[in-house]
Amino acid sequence: MLCLGQVYGNASSIHYFGQGAKRQLEAARRQIASLIHASPGEVIFTSGGTESDNMAVLGVARASANASASRHVISSSIEHPAVLGPCMQLQREGADITLLRCGASGIVDPDDVRKALRPDTVLVSVMHANNELGTIQPIAEISRITREAGVPLHVDGVQALGKIAVDVDALGVDLYSMSGHKLYAPKGVGALYIRKGTRMAPIAFGGHHERDRRAGTENVPSAAAFGAAAELAAGRLAEESERLRALRDRLERRVLESIPDTGINGDRGNRVPNTSNIYFDGIDGEALVIALDLRGFAVSTGAACSSGALTPSHVLTAIGLSADRARASMRFSLGHGNTAEQVDALVDALGASMMHLRRISVHA
Amino acid sequence: MPEQPIAVAMSGGVDSSTVAALLVRQGRAVVGMTMQLWNQRRLPELSTEHSTGRCCSLDDVYDARHVAEQIGIPYYVVNFERQFEEQVVKPFVEEYLAGRTPIPCTLCNNYIKFDRFLEMADSVGAGHMATGHYARIRYHEAAGRYRLLRAVDAAKDQTYFLFGLTQGQLARTLFPLGDLNKTEVRELARGMDLAVASKGDSQEICFVPNGDYAAFMSAYLRETGVTARQTSGEIVTTDGRTLGRHQGVHHFTVGQRKGLGIATGEPLYVIATDAERQRVVVGGNDDLLRSRFFAGSVNWISIAGVSHPVRAQVKIRNKHRAAGATLHATGDAARVEVVFDEAQRAVTPGQGAVFYDGDLVLGGGWIE
After folding, report:
1. Residue B61: domain span
2. CATH of the domain at B246
């Protein structure tokens, strides 16, 4: 709030007020860098995860030395649309895209990355944790392969940041996308980690902000909030992730015990602690979402961004679910404010809604 | 949920918005839902900046959500695109290709609005649904049936499109606007300060931009990769003379005068289309007159059926003024022969025939 009320300078201005804004911005940059064990000069602010992903994918591919020759990009079929979208754009610009498949586990096999590499591969982009399943991808193993091949590795970390420890050096990533609101900062701010020396073409022009990486006046109040959120997340990461894991496991145990024809989508072991994707066979997921919302529980069928879409989740389809089971699947995300009592109430509400829904579908 | 809420089908227009607001004002628990039926990003070649009658546009969802916020009700967009395409769009296209003139609004009412939507209402714990249709429902003790009646506002009456409603559907449906006229509805909307109070009425078939069926059909067939069989053929007169050629029977509908591309002395009308032989039959105005036809797949509403000849007024398209007729039973309870007192113009296969007794909707079926 200090930022909104009193720090009204432009962080690029030389004068006193500008310097005040600049101080806030740089403090936030240090806080975020510290959360991912990067140096502050490698972190730039963006408007959110989508922009970070676009900058990374488009920027690195377009900056590749053999821009005039063929360009090849490797990504996975379970990426967020913020990565798949720019990949499709590169395809329209003439690039070849390989989307790695992954089995029922929802985890990409590093060996598939190795096999997909070509001499003209200019970028590999694989997410850290899947947004619908929560499954954690073997980034460190993938980076050993990409490093050996001399290909930059971008990782969409939006869903992992604040949920599991992130160390960009240990992971070996060259670019890492982050979103503020996933850490409870306001919506509309994100960041991109860019390892020093990474070649990247800008996607917006007209300013020298953020070390020439991103033109445009920085959103100082939101960046400061993101910084503060990052510091809070760093402080409580270990404790909070254990707490969320226990809650999530409680939710799954109780659902599987009390509601028939249910199961967990994706690998159960290798997941961020707060996410659970459960199928309820024979149910219209959309109806269940509404029924639960009316009972005070906010869940979603797929990614929040694509709710209401006609096709079932591309992630659930990619891991081999039938269209019917994909439509009958529900994503549960637990957060800082959730308690065991709430989880129990949710399971009760789920049970009641399910009884009602299954009774209706028998008549229908 | 202490009280079972009413699910209101909100289109973002003034009618359904007023329905939701009226029910809230009466102290009822209301859930607003907008049906997403057609993806406007499909068939981009059809969209123009000034497209009219676009359903499910983002603007409409925005308007409905705004109203829901104003009146303080939970609001959801429910996606029925798959069902809409299967049960409304595909049959519409097939009927047209088969040389008939379908009415998708009735199919949509039968299979989507009063079927799928009602099921969704049920799923989320709502016992009843309400819409902004202009029609009235009354329970008739003696007959033990729900009756459907024309709206008080004759100009807005929508019963022609509602002839497929079953007793089960009628029992769970509310039409709060049936006793009001449009002017009153707008005044109510204005009085309640609804954001959509001055919004224009929707027209045309919602998924067909600018009412251009032929363009929609071509684009849809192209997108779905269906190659229509040979669609060109001859234009012939009732007495067998060939006058010219046409580019597909689906471009023509019975009673049509314009667009034949033939210059003759007296005005020519389409009398019939024959998809089998790809022929369009044309003739003079008198050739369009018919005094009897069969209606199939009849749904009886206010009465259980006809066993002996029953007097009625029969409407053969939405803008048709119901004409005096006698309904004759056939061996099949869901099929009747309609005999008009005076021959009527352009009895069109594929359109609905709705039987009235004054304000009462007896039932309706499809013109064979």
Report:
1. 6-132+176-211
2. 2.30.30.280
Q: Identify whether residues A218 and A251 lie together within a single domain.
A: no
The Cα B225–Cα B205 span in angstroms is 23
* Domain total of chain B: 3
A-proximal residues of B, 31-90, CB under 8 Å: 31, 33, 36, 39, 74, 76-79, 81-82
Prediction pTM value: 0.82
Q: Which helix (H) or strand (E) holds A3?
A: helix A2-5
User: 10 Å Cβ neighbour count for A72?
Assistant: 21
ipTM: 0.74
* Residue for token pair 């602690």: A273
Catalytic residue among A3, A87, A102, A305: A305
Q: Do B125 and A356 touch (CB under 8 A)?
A: yes
Residues 221-240 of B with CB under 8 A from A: none
Residue ranges making up the domain that contains A305: 237-363
Q: Buried b / exposed e across A116-138, counting CB within 10 Å, b at 16+?
A: bbeeebbbbbbbbbbbbbbbbbe
* Residue in A with minimal Cα distance to B33: A290
pLDDT in tens, B76-97: 988 888 889 999 999 988 888 8
E strand or H helix at A65: none
Tokens describing residue B360: 């009462």
| Residue listed under structure tokens 């992954």 | A102
- Length of chain B in terms of residues written: 368
Instruction: Tell me the one-letter amino acid at A64.
Output: S
